[in-house]
C-alpha cells in the first residue's frame, strides 16, 4: 500500500476513534435521559446525511424517509422478536420467520435490503419523471406503509404497534450507523459517482450530454438513502423497544428536509451539524410547549426558521461544500 | 341491487366532487407557477373550521358559503404573496420546500389554537334526509355536494374561458414571460389564480365537514394528496383534467370499497396511492392530455 493510500485510511480512522473517545467520556457522566437524547441526535444525524445523499447530491425531493424507517423497523423487529412469543402474537408470519430469532446486526442488514428493494420498486417508475412527482409519490408511500402496517395485523399487530421489541441497540449502534453513513456519503461525494450526481442536480441536460445516465444517478442516490433510512428505523425500534404505524410521520420527513436545507443541500457536515442543532432545539422547546399547553409550537418555530433561511440564505450553512477544516482532518493534512 | 349500485354511484360522485374542487385549484396553481402547493390541502381544513365557527355563531347557510369562499380566497392570496412571489425565480425544489413549510405552519398553528380534538360538524337536519327517485334513494348532502360543485365548476369555466382575467391566466400559464411582454399584469394574475383555486378548496372543506361530520386540524393532508393523484390522472396543469380526475378517483375509491369484501376496505388509501404509482409508470402525462412539451 502506498504511503498516500495508507494516510488516507489512517486519518479518518483516527478521527472516528477520537470521536468515539469523546462520546465515551460524555457518556461516563450522562444521565439515562441524556444518553437516549444523544442516541437520537446521532440517529437523526445519520438520517439527515442519508437524505442529503438523496436530496442534496442529486437535487431530488424525496419525503419518503419515514416510510423506509417504518419498513425497516418492522422488518428488523419481526426478525429479532422472541421466537417463543412470535407465533401467538403474529399469527400470519410464515413458519420459517416465526421460528427465527436473529441478533441485531443481520436484522438491521435485512431491514436495509428490504428498504432498498422497496425504493427500487417505487423509484423506477417515478424517477424517470421530473422532481415533484417523487415528492408526492413518496408522501403517498408514507400513507401506503402506514395503511399496511395498520391493517395487516397478522404481521404487525395493527394500530397497537409492536411492543416489547428486545432493547438490543444502544448509543454505540447509533454512532456506528452515523460513521457508516458519513463514510459512504463522503466516499461517494469525492468520487466520479458523486460528481455525476452533483452534475445531475445542477443541469440535467448538460449532465446527459457528458454521458451521465441521470435516471440511474437519481435511482442510485434514492436507493442508498432509503437503505440507510430503513437501517436507522430498525435501530430506533430496538432503542425504544416499540414501533407503531404512526411512529414515523410526514412531520419527521419535513424535519429531515429542514436539516438538509439548513445544513446546505449536499453538505455532509452541514447535515450533521443541523441535525444536532434542530434535534437539540426542539428538545429544549418541549418543556415550554408542555407547560404552556401549546402543542405544535416548536414545529411552528422550526418551519418559520426554515422559511427565513430560504429567503435570506437559500444555500444553507455550508452550501454544498464541506468545511475546509474537516476536509483536511479527513485527509490527514491538518497541519500542512 | 339497483339501490346499492345507485347509492355507490352517488357516493362516489360526491366524493369525486370534493376531490375535483381541491384538484382544480392545485392544477391551476401548478399550471401557472409550476409549483406543487403542499399547503393547498390545508385550505380544506381552513374552510371547514371557518364554516364551523359560522355555524356556531348562527350565521345563515347561504352567507356561510359566501364567507367561506372569501376567507379561502384571502388565505390563498396570503400564501401566494408570502411565499411564491419572492421564490418565483428560485429552483423548483426551493418552492416545494417553502410550500411544505407553510403547510406545517398552518397545521401546527391550527393545532395550537384548536387542539387536536376532532369536532362535530353537522349540516342542518334537512340535509341528513334522503330523497327517493322511483325505487332508489340518495342523501340530500350528497346531492347538494354534486350540484354545488357543478355550479362552481361552471362558474370557473366561465371565468377562465369568457373573461379578460381568464385570458390573462391562460396566457400566463402558457408562457409567463411572453404574457408579461403582452402587458399582462402577471403577478396580479398569479394571485387571482391562487384566490380562485383556494376559494374552491375552502368550499370543499365546508362540504367535507358536512359529509363526514367530524373535522380536525390535520384533516387537509390526505385530501390534498389525493387531489394531486386526481391531477395526475387527468394530466397535471389541466383544469378539465383535474376535474375529471377527481370524479374518476372518487368513483374508483368508492367502487374499491363497495365491491370488494369488507376486509379490504381498510386498504383504500393504499389503493389510491398504488394507483398513482401505476399511472406514473404507464401514462405519466395523464389520461386526457395528448401532448405536453415539458413533461412536468
Walk me through the topology.
The complex is a heterodimer of chains A (336) and B (296).
Chain A lengths: L2 H26 L3 H27 L6 H16 L5 H4 L5 H4 L5 H23 L4 H21 L1 H4 L5 E2 L7 H19 L2 H11 L1 H6 L4 H27 L1 E2 L6 H14 L4 H25 L4 H16 L11 H8 L5
Antiparallel strand pairs in A: 1-2
Chain B lengths: L1 H32 L6 H17 L4 H27 L4 H23 L4 E2 L9 E4 L2 E4 H23 L1 H11 L1 H6 L4 H27 L1 E2 L5 H14 L4 H21 L8 H15 L14
Antiparallel strand pairs in B: 1-4, 2-3
Mean pLDDT of chain A: 85
Order of neighbouring strands in the sheet with most strands of chain B: 1-4
By secondary-structure content and strand pairing, the structural class of chain A works out as: mainly alpha
Q: What's the main sheet of chain B like?
A: 2 strands, antiparallel
Give an overview of the whole structure.
- The complex is a heterodimer of chains A (336) and B (296).
- Chain A is mainly α and 336 residues long.
- Chain A has a domain at 9-27 and 37-248.
- Chain A has helices at residues 3-28, 32-58, 65-80, 86-89, 95-98, 104-126, 131-151, 153-156, 171-189, 192-202, 204-209, 214-240, 250-263, 268-292, 297-312, 324-331; strands spanning 162-163, 242-243.
- Chain A has a two-stranded antiparallel ribbon.
- Chain B has 296 residues and is mainly alpha-helical.
- Chain B has one domain (2-220).
- In chain B, 73% of the residues lie in helices and 4% in strands.
- Chain B has helices at residues 2-33, 40-56, 61-87, 92-114, 140-162, 164-174, 176-181, 186-212, 221-234, 239-259, 268-282; strands at 119-120, 130-133, 136-139, 214-215.
- In chain B, the strands form two sheets. In chain B, strands 1-4 form a two-stranded antiparallel ribbon.
- In chain B, helix 3 crosses helix 8 and helix 5 (140-162) crosses helix 6 (164-174).
- Chain B is globular and about 60 Å long.
- The model of chain B has no long low-confidence stretch (mean pLDDT 87).
- At the A-B interface, helix 6, helix 7, helix 13 and helix 15 of A face helix 3, helix 4, helix 9 and helix 11 of B.
